[in-house]
Amino acid sequence: MKKENAFGTPKHYFDDFSARIQMQIEAEKNVADKKEFKIITILKPALGLAASFAIIFMLVYIPIKTFIPQEQVIETTASANYSDNEMHSILEGLDESSFFSLLSNDDNDETFSDDDLIAYVSSNFSAYEIFEYTQE
Questions:
Q1: Sign of the torsion angle spanned by Cα atoms 93, 96, 98, 102
Q2: DSSP state letters, 5-69
Q3: Mean pLDDT of 127-135
Q4: Separation CA 97–CA 76 (nearest Å)
Q5: What is the pLDDT of residue 86?
Q6: pLDDT tens string 43-59
Q7: Is-contact 120 130, C-beta < 8 A?
Q8: Which letter does DSSP use for residue 81 in this model?
């Protein structure tokens, strides 16, 4: 069996090979020169990103606004006179003697619930201090 190369090049293929390559290079340069700079090619990704954020916002905002009426939100915010931070800062400035004087003061019409007293004691004293005081 005679081994022959099954693959080959056409006759006279490389005779004008460099000229054909040169013509293709020039044609690609002309096409690249004709391509104009367009602002939309730069803005297209940014516009897509902005549009996706707008769609996500609308998908979240509209259902929340529809299912939670504005009156309920206003009532919820108006029902609390003090925020947690304000209440904490008020209680921090209060020492033990002034706390007891407020409790014994007859001018004060405000009554403290057990939960209020527990919250005050737990925020101002450690568990060890409370345990130590109850053992005396």
A1: positive
A2: -S--PPTTTTTSHHHHHHHHHHHHHHHHHHSPP-HHHHHHHHHHHHHHHHHHHHHHHHHHHHHS-
A3: 83
A4: 34
A5: 74
A6: 888 999 999 999 999 99
A7: no
A8: S
Cα 57–chain centre separation: 12
Picking from 130, 119, 132, the residue whose alpha carbon sits closest to that of residue 92 is 119
CA-to-CA distance for 49 and 42, rounded, in angstroms? Answer: 12
Q: What are phi and psi of 11, to 5 degrees?
A: -65, 140
Q: What is the pLDDT of residue 78?
A: 47
Q: If we measure between CA atoms, which residue out of 103, 96, 90, 86 comes closest to residue 130? A: 96
Q: What is the pTM of this model?
A: 0.29
Q: Which of 71, 66, 124, 129 is nearest to 93 (CA)?
A: 124
